[in-house]
Design goal:
mainly alpha; 3 helices; 67% helix; 0% strand
Length: 76
Amino acid sequence: MQVLVRDNNVDQAMKALKKKLQREGVFREMKLRNFYEKPSEKRAREKAEAIRRARKLARKRAQRESGVPAPVVVKK
């Protein structure tokens, strides 16, 4: 992973790096690897994540097919 520092603006480069790491899921994986997770808990978590992803995808497809615009989410 590479982040360019322009005009000695390290703060902006750090912000870009954190955003890339967040998008890649590095922080989440570090948090998960911090403690031992039982295999049964891991299976349950992965199954719940898969269900969540499938529902999200189905929701997006339904919105696209019905022509209803997606709700606007305001991030702070």
